[in-house]
Automatic annotation (TrEMBL):
Keywords: Membrane, Transmembrane, Transmembrane helix. It comes from Gimesia benthica. This is DMT family transporter. It comes from the Bacteria. The chain crosses the membrane at residues 7-25, 41-63, 84-103, 115-132, 144-163, 183-207, 228-248, 260-279, 291-310, 322-340.
Length: 366
């Protein structure tokens, strides 16, 4: 029990959880899209249904009541937490949909869109956190800021190169539809909305009533489920059924829907882990977690993609693959992780307790 508490009470554990969940999400979503005859909109609807079932219905009406019955959950929803959480949920869901659009219509597909997203999101998140709640000079000395910035840049380089290595191994990947310039706007919205989501979902969970961080995180997660339902199920469903003009019946398949639901489960797991990671870390979470998450996620996705390629080649690098570049990139990422985690801002010192007045000695009664 003590070992489990030490592991799951440590914020970096949940960062690794995001890497795994969101790193696998991309491949699962791709399989779902393939099983649905390339209709990524239908795959996104399946993901939205998964969020509705797990992040909203299961969490709100099963998990939270059980935790409250067992005395673990001592809190509740609050108007402020609900308001911020719903805004955050709409942001992250709309960003997921516009990302699907960008991947479909960008001329270079994954290789051009994903580096922009995974480099831009933490930059937006960090700038927003620094503007809204800047750390004090005492909690973040100039030397620490400089080393943190170096680590942040290394993580950007790491994520960018890992995606590039995946493109090399895939011998190029391009959008599946005729390219248009709207993919740039879609990518920009994904970067902005996901960057703001990280800070907002933390604020929403903190505003919830209660002391248990898991329960507060679960309450915030329900609003992510609401956001995915409204954007990825209702709005996108109306478009697919009535406006797209595509023959949905010819592209639908049970196998594709199941794979989309599985992809959604990985997405839900990643969202819960990122909320928990930020909550465990505290006020410095919106600064520290995003660069770690959005560099490690494409790395896991790339490694998952490379494993069957290396396996088919007797666990050797395929001809023309820059193995040395892969090793160098991993070392760069490791250095970035060390610098960002070591030189992040210190949590604010607790307010000093008010000094109690000295007791006045009782006078003798005569």
């Amino acid at each position: 029990m003590n070992i489990a508490h030490a592991i799951f009470g440590f914020w970096f554990t949940y960062v690794v959880g995001v890497w795994i969940c969101w790193g696998l999400y991309g491949s699962r979503f791709g399989r779902a899209t393939g099983a649905l005859q390339g209709n990524n909109w239908m795959a996104a609807i399946g993901v939205g249904i998964s969020y509705l079932l797990v992040a909203w219905l299961l969490v709100r009406y099963v998990a939270l009541p059980i935790l409250k019955q067992k005395g673990i959950d001592d809190g509740d929803f609050t108007p402020k937490g609900n308001r911020i959480g719903r805004i955050a949920g709409l942001f992250v869901a709309s960003g997921a949909v516009t990302l699907s659009y960008a991947l479909k219509y960008c001329p270079s597909g994954h290789g051009q869109v994903m580096p922009l997203v995974f480099c831009g999101v933490p930059l937006v998140s960090i700038l927003y956190a620094l503007i809204t709640k800047p750390p004090t000079k005492e909690s973040w000395p100039v030397k620490y800021k400089a080393l943190f910035a170096i680590g942040f840049v290394l993580l950007l380089v790491f994520g960018w190169h890992m995606i590039g290595l995946k493109e090399i191994a895939a011998t190029g990947h391009h959008g599946s539809a005729a390219p248009n310039q709207a993919w740039k706007i879609a990518t920009a919205w994904t970067v902005l909305s996901w960057g703001l989501y990280v800070a907002l979902i933390h604020s929403g969970s903190v505003a919830m009533k209660g002391q248990n961080k898991l329960c507060k995180s679960l309450r915030a997660l329900t609003h992510v489920g609401e956001g995915y339902f409204l954007v990825a199920v209702v709005a996108l469903g109306i478009y697919v059924l009535f406006l797209s003009g595509a023959p949905v019946s010819e592209q639908f398949s049970v196998d594709g829907c199941v794979k989309a639901l599985i992809a959604g489960l990985f997405g839900v797991g990643g969202n819960l882990c990122i909320i928990l990671a930020i909550n465990r870390l505290g006020p410095t979470g919106p600064l520290t977690v995003p660069p770690l998450v959005f560099s490690g996620t494409p790395a896991v996705n790339t490694l998952v993609f490379l494993m069957p390629i290396f396996s088919a080649n007797n666990w050797s690098a395929p001809e023309g693959f820059p193995l040395g570049q892969l090793i160098t990139t991993i070392l760069i990422g490791a250095c970035g992780v060390v610098l960002v985690t070591r030189f992040k801002p210190n949590p604010p010192a607790p307010a000093a307790a008010a000094a109690t007045p000295a007791a006045v000695p009782a006078t003798e009664s005569h």
